[in-house]
Each structure stands twice: as C-alpha cells, then as structure tokens.
Amino acid sequence: MMSELNKLEFVGRAEHLNRIISLIQESNKLRVVLVEGRGGIGKTWLLHALKSRLNQVQIGTTEIIDCDIPVFNDAGDLYTQIAKQLYDYTYKEWLIRLRQLREDENRLSQIAYEQERRQLEKFLVDEINRKSSQQRLVFLIDTVEKLGQVDIREQVWEYISNLCHKLDNAIFILAGRPSIARNILEKSFKEEELTYLELNEFTHEDVQTYIRCKEEQLHFTLGQELVKKIIVLSGGSPIMIEFGVEYAYREVIPDWLEIEDIKTIPSRLEKTGGFEAEMVRHITQLRTSMDRLTLLLSRIYPLDSSDIGNLLELSTEEAQRLFIDAQSYFFIKPVIGGSQISLHDIVRDLVEKYVWKDIDPDFEWRKRDSRIAAKYFEQKDYQLGPQKRRLETQRHFDDSHQVANIEFLIEEVKHLREFNTTRWLWNALYADFTTGFKTWYEVTNTIRTQAKKFSFVNQLLAIAKQFEKELNAGQKLQLIIFESKIVHALKDKSTTEDEVRKLEGILSKQSSNSFHQADIYNVLGMLNTKLHLYEEALKYQQECLSLVQGNNLSSIPGVANLVGYLYRQLNNFQEAEKYYKLGWEAAMEIDTPDKGLTLIMASIQNNLGFLYGLQKDYVKAEQCFKAAIDMWLSVGSEREIANAEIASATISVDNGNYVKAKQLLEQALSRCDNEENDNQILCRAYFQLGLNQWFSAEVVNEAVWDVTQVEWDLNLLSLAQDALEKSLKLAEKYGLEEELPRILHQTASVYWHLGFQKCDRTLQDQALKLNDRSYQTSLEYNDMRYAIDSLVGKAEFDYYAKAYEHISDYAQELSDRFQSYQNIHTLYFGRMLRIEGDVAFQQANYNFAFSKYAQGIPQIFQHGGFGPYSIKHELNLLQKKIERLPIELSKTLIQQLKSQWKDHKALKEWCDQQMFLTRIRATKQPSSHA
Q1: How many Cβ atoms are within 10 Å of 560's Cβ, its own excluded?
Q2: Choosing a second label site near 905 at 20 to 30 A (CA), which of 124, 145, 356, 929?
Q3: Helices and strands: H and E segment counts in the chain
Q4: What is the dihedral of CA 711, 714, 716, 718, to 10 degrees?
Q5: 195 forms bridges with which residues in the sheet?
Q6: How far apart are CA 361 and CA 347, in angstroms?
Q7: How does pLDDT run across 117-170, given as a tens digit for each residue?
Q8: pLDDT band at 738 (very low <50, low <70, confident <90, very high)
Q9: pTM
C-alpha cells in the first residue's frame, strides 16, 4: 500500500490561495508575497497548491526552492537555485562566476568586490527579465527563515530585496516561519509591492472540512469518533491532522486513539508530552525501515538513495525502494530537483524533542550514526578530489567548445565536494568532539592555507561554533588563533588592530607554559607585520621562536625566517642573516622535508638572496636566488619562482642593471596566467618594471649641475607610467593596502617628471595629489619608509616648481616626526638635506648650501642610493656645482667638506680629487655661478 500511495493533495486555505493568484494576475506592481506561520501550519502545501493552480492558468512558476538544507549559507546559494530554474547556459555561467566571486572575496578590495558582486547580480537580473519577458514568472521559495548563516541573515535579506526591486515581470512568493524577513521587506517595498499573509490554525469547522476532503480524496472513511478526536487533539494544526489521517489510512494509528474516550485522552497525553509527541513516538519501536530512515533524516539530510543504502546498510535495490516509498509520506519532501529527500522541519523538531530523548538519553546512538556518516562522507570527499582533477586534465586537451562545459562540471564537483565536506566535518565533531575537532582543524586549515577559499572556511568555522559548549580552554584558544589568521589574510587595518588588542588581552591571561602561547606570539607577529609595526612584530616573533626552539623543531625554520625578514625591514642586515641561517640550519636537521618545509626553505634562500643583493654581494645573491628557484620547481610551485625573479630584479634595478632587471620582470610576469590568483605577484612585478623603466629613462648629460636640468626619454617614462598604473590598479582592485604607499609615491614621481618635461600642469597636479595620498596612506599603515620618502617628495616637487618657501617646513617635519628613523632611512634624510642645500645654492648662499651638503651627502653615501638618487649621481651634480663657482670659493668649500668628512675615507678622497681638478681649472679660465 505504501509504495502506491500518492502524497495527500492540498485542501483548505482557498481564501489565501485565491488572493495570491488574483494579485499575481492583476497587479503589475507586486514584487513579493511573504507567507508566514509557525511550523506545520501548511506553508509548504500552500506553495505546492499555488504552483499547480498557476500552471493551470498559464503563469510560469519555478520548482519550489526549499532553503531547509544546509547549503543555503548566503544569498549566492539561493541565487544558484534561481539560476538553475532559468536556462542551462544561465546556470552554468552563474556557477562559474559565483565561484570566481567567492574566491575573489579574499583577493579584491571591498570596493572592487562589491562592484563584481553587483555585476554578477545584474547578470542574474537580466536573465530573469529575459525569461519573464513574454510571461510572468513566479519564484516559489520555502523555509526562508533558514536562509543564510545567522550572522549575515540581515545582509542576505537586503540583497534579496534589492534583487526583487530590479525585476520587470517576476514575483517572489516566500514562505517561512516568522523571521527578520518581514521587517526588512516592509522597509524596502511600498505597500502595493509587498503582500504579507499570516497562516493560522484551522477552526473546528475548517478541520472538519479539511478531513472530509481528505476522505473523499483517499476514498477512505475515518469514522465519526476518530474525526472528533483529531479535531480536538490537532489544535487546528494541519500537520497534526495529516499525522492522524495518514496513520489511520496506513492502519498504524495508536490503539489509544481508537479505543479511549475523548474525555480521558487529554489527561493521558499530559503525561506523555501531548498529541504531537504521540504522533512520532511510534518511531521508538523501529519496526520498519521507514522508522530508521526518519531517525536518520532527523539529523543527517538531505540524502539520496546511495546515501541511504550506505548509512542504513541496505542493498542498492532496498535503498532505492525505500527512497521511493518514503516520498509517499507527507512529512518527507524531495529536494535538490528530486534527487534527494529531507524530513519536514517540524517533524525533525518533534523527533529530536520526543524520540531521541527516549531512545538515546546518553547520545551514544546518535554518536554512532555520526561516526558511520563521518566515515562515509570522508570517503566521498576523497573520491570527489580525483574526479575534479580528471576534469581539470581533460580541460587542457579538449577543444574550446567543450572547455566551457568542462568548467561547469568542475564547478559542480567543487560545489558538491564543499557540501560533502561540511557533512563530514559536522558528523566528525558530533561523533567524538576531541578527535573530530582535530580533523576539523586539519581539514579547514589546509583549505585556508592551500586552497584559500575563505568564504568556505568561514562556513566551516560556523560549523565548529555550533559545538562551542564542547570546547575546552585549549580548543577555544586554538579557534580564536585560527580566526586571527583569517583576519590577517582578509581584513582591513581597523579589524587587524582590533584583533591585535584581543590577542594581547588573551596573552596577558595565559600562563607562561601555555601550549598555545607560541601560536599567539606568532599571529601577533604576523598581524603587527601587516600593520608595519616591525619592532612590535619582531618582539612577538622572537618570543615565539624561543618557545618553539625548546619543543618544536619543525616550526623553527618558518619562525626564524620571519624574524630575519623583520630585522631586514629594520635595516639590521647582520641579525637578518643570522636568523635566516638559523632557520636554514634547523630545516637541514629534518630528515624528510615535506612540501611545506621545502617552500619555507625556498623562501629563506630567496630572502638571503635579496639581503646579499642589498649588501652588493651579487654572486652570493644569485646563488641563493637559483637555489630558491630549484626548490620551488622541485615541489611544482613554478609560479613562486616569480618571487625570486622579482627579488633579483629589484637588486638589479638598485644596481643600475636595467636590461637584466627588465628580462627578469618579464619572465616573472609570463609565469602569471591568472590575475585573481597571481594579483600580488603581478602588482609587485609591474611596480618594479615601472621603477626600472623610469630609472633607465634618464638621458645622460655630463653638463647637468642641477636635478631640474635632467632630461628623460619620454617614451620610456610613458612605459614606466603604464606599468606603475597597472600596479596601482591591481593594488586597489585586490585590496593590497600594504603595497599602496610605494606605488602611489613612485607613480607620483613619474607623473611629475612627465609633467615637468612636457610642461603639463595637469600631470604635475596629479603627481602632487598622488604623493600626498602616499604620505597619508603611509602614516595610516605605519609605513615609515614611504611616509619619509613621500615627505621628501613634497620638498623635491616644490624645488622643481621653485616654490622654496615650504621646503624648510618639510625638513622640520621630517626632523620632528621621524627623527628616530634616521639611522634606518639615511638616504631620505640625506636627500632632504641636499634639497635644502640646492635651495641655498640657487639663492647664492653657498656657505649654507655646502653645510647642508656636508651633512646630507654622507647619509646618502651610507645607503648608496639608486637610480637618480644614487651617490654617484649626487656626487656628479655636486662636482658640476663646484665647477660653476669661483676658484678660491671652490677651494674653500671643498676644504670645508673634507674637514667635515674626515671619518669618511671615500668622501675625503673625492674631496682631494675635486681639489686637484679645481687647481687644473685654475690654470685655465675662471668660472662663476651663472
């Protein structure tokens, strides 16, 4: 009988049904109908009846989209099901573009991400409007109170409201329990655009009519006494009526309901939990496969026939038969296009409340089910990985016509695998929280570090938080640290600062031997590095290193590498080398290096190469860069080689080897075939390429004595502008905030030189704005190097424009605000003094000018400089200035320089050379400053 029984058809609610149909047919302004009511009141049945009636009057409807499955985490998940209802092309295109958007969430800046999200939403709106252009289209969406994770539910409803506003000829019918949806929708829509309906319990008369219709429909008579009992006991709830009618029809009605008098039944039910409890309590007897399936679906859902077979240990045929038979029960609903089934949410609540409590008071049964489920879904997860890889391999060999379809199939597998992973980890956590949490952490951390799918990581984080009460102190701390790592990868400066304060507060409460103390120090170091607070970051990473040195050999290489990097940022090259080597030596102690360790070792070699390059030891630098490249190749990380090429190119640019730098940067750019994945590499490569083009654009002219006389190859300068603008665009698009200060400043410099040489005031104004933005951004992100550089840039631009009056103010600001950084950033302090000297030279105040040169040049010499700011360049210009002065004045000023440079052997020798050249000049004709 069970397999032949059709689902009971919808009866009752005619008033609501007719009103909705009338509104859809008559109103051109209606956008949304929201139907609310408590669980089991008949909302789902109303949608099914509505679909049937609308199809009869030639109004197009979608399949009912049920949000009561664990895949509706955000508005994008709902939109995916909407896209599925339109055209095959729409769904395929949507799925691929949604995946891209989600992967871009941790790559794009907030502004760029919102632009991409709006573009994707527009694509869906256009497709809905195309589908509904000839005929009104009605979307039927059920259990909407479950839509979206709790913390983003308000945002989800705002997105849905926005979508509905843009539809030309489509209406959303939304059904669910009372939620925040009503409040948001009422604020978003005018009265004529939104209709709200509330479903309440049936009256006694309604119940009688309802049961009479059911009897006619089933050709079955309940009997007058049973009808009276159901009327009283159901409380007017359609789902309770359905229980009574269906159990009577299936001849599984409880004996007491048939035998006992209606007057005594209420007192009996008071002791057992009421009518609703009795309607599900028979499941405790587990007499049928359907009882076992109902129990399973109350916790693990949705399921297909294969899932049912594996989890209930049934044969394929038995599982398929049960899958079909189950759908004849009113409380089982097909979902995901009918390929899977789920339990009505109110029945799920009742089973949890009344059945599990009786049969599994110690939770062991449920834990056993979850152990089986976790193992099953884990196996499915591992099967889906190779399936995706086979499709990716196939994509490389198929023609372009097939590639789009393969891309879609890959996205479907990814989507399926993510859903499967969530079920695996939820069940693992439930089955045994201690081992489950370990599994959850390993899987989720792998996704965070390797796949970097942060929207999915946040979904998995929400799963772990469902078990917060189970967390011990160590696990709570581990979860907090994990969230901080997500903040480090994703969030803005303000959120990063908040995270630092939170972790510092936790650290102050930890005992000195806390197991997670090293992790906290490490993350605090990472967060402070992101904020450019290098001294703070160094303090934390050194604390971390001292802890891991005692008990965790495998962690030493990574932490020592970070300590070395921070010392380099602070210009302490000796300590940087010491810690890089410490990390390397620790790594060499590990007998079997895995991929993670190999990547760290490659990074250490790359960092050493850059350090040696800064110290002008180019042979050792190249050896290290080559070693890094070989290591990256050995683990198949070819795109990481671009980092070594950019580092090597940076050294070549500083060294004036522009041809080699260009070749290296072009190689690095060629390795990046995906802007979304490679945005940071591309951003840095274009930045260095821009610098390289700019520095190589200088037209050598031995007669030049002042920086304003330097001429540039405008073609190369335009190429520099193009490369720097690409770098800036990438930084802004992908939220690479830490890259902005230097890109803005160097772009400003190129704009200035282009504008100055072409007499283009617009370009010069743009340069001033970009440089000022660099200064403000540098201060905001604690990037002292570029805060100082852009402040010197202000003085430089004013010098070019002969606006000398503010230059002393800039020099004073540099001294007042950044004096503590003078030993780290000697080049820029030296340049500011040289600019002050140039102003005095232009004003024929030679003694003051040379007193500034005497202070500034040694600082530039100490650094060495680069490009147009190299010490060689500076000394050449100073020599040409000396040659313009009268012989005796030149001698006096050279002697003054020599006396002040007595501690700088090379500069003293330069003074001697200038003195000899001045004597030679004296034998010829005198010169004067003109």
Answers
A1: 28
A2: 929
A3: 43, 10
A4: 130
A5: 33
A6: 19
A7: 899 999 999 999 999 998 889 999 999 998 887 878 899 999 999 999 999 999
A8: confident
A9: 0.72
| Contact between residue 826 and residue 814 where contact means Cβ atoms under 8 Å apart | no
Rounded to whole angstroms, what are the CA distances from 283 to 322, 348, 352, 356, 769?
Answer: 16, 12, 12, 10, 73
- In the DSSP assignment, the letter for residue 469 is G
Question: Which ranges in 304-363 belong to alpha helices (H)?
Answer: 305-312, 316-326, 345-350, 356-359
Do the Cβ atoms of 796 and 835 come closer than 8 Å?
yes
Tokens standing for residue 625: 């860069």
Residue 594 three-state SS = coil
| 32 DSSP β-pair partners | 172, 194
Pairing of strands 698-699, 711-712: antiparallel
**Backbone φ/ψ region at 925: left (φ over 0), alpha (ψ -120 to 50), beta:** beta
Which amino acid appears at position 776 of this protein? Answer: Q
* CA–CA dist 753, 694 (Å, integer): 9
d(CA 792, CA 752): 14
CA distances from 835 to 77, 351, 646, 807 (A): 59, 81, 31, 8
755 in Cβ contact with 761 (< 8 Å): yes
362-397 as b/e: b if 16+ CB within 10 A: eeeebbebbbbbbebbbebbeebeeebeebeeebee
Which residue, among 704, 868, 707, has the nearest Cα to 800 in the 3D structure? Answer: 707
Q: Report yes or no: 443 and 464 within 8 Å, Cβ to Cβ.
A: no
What does each C-alpha distance from 333 to 53, 234, 325, 326, 521 come to in angstroms? 20, 22, 12, 9, 51
Closest CA to 757 of 691, 693, 711, 697: 711
Q: What sections of 235-299 are H helices per DSSP? A: 238-249, 255-259, 265-272, 275-281, 289-297
What average pLDDT does the segment 760-785 reach? 94
SS3 breakdown of the chain: % helix, strand, coil, rounded to 5? 75, 5, 20
SS3 335: strand
Residues 6+ apart with CB under 8 A from 341: 297, 301, 302, 303, 304, 323, 326, 327, 332, 333, 334, 335
SS3 460: helix
* Contact present, 538 and 571 (Cβ < 8 Å): no
Long-range contacts, 214-217 (Cβ 8 Å, 24+): 214/8, 214/11, 214/241, 214/245, 217/8, 217/9, 217/11
The CA distance from 778 to 785, in Å, is 8
Helix axes 761-780, 740-758, angle to 10 degrees: 160
Please list the residues that pair with 197 across neighbouring strands: 35
Contact between 423 and 373 (Cβ < 8 Å): yes
pLDDT tens for 621-644 read: 999 999 999 999 998 887 889 999
Cα end-to-end distance, the chain, whole Å = 112
* Angle (nearest 5°) at CA 323 between 339 and 54: 55
Alpha helices in 570-674 (DSSP H): 573-588, 595-614, 618-634, 641-654, 658-670
Helix H, strand E, coil C: the string for 150-216 is HHHHHHHHHHHHHHHHCCCCEEEEEEECCCCHHHHHHHHCCHHHEEEEECCCCCHHHHHHHHHHHHH
Q: How far apart are CA 217 and CA 246, in angstroms?
A: 12
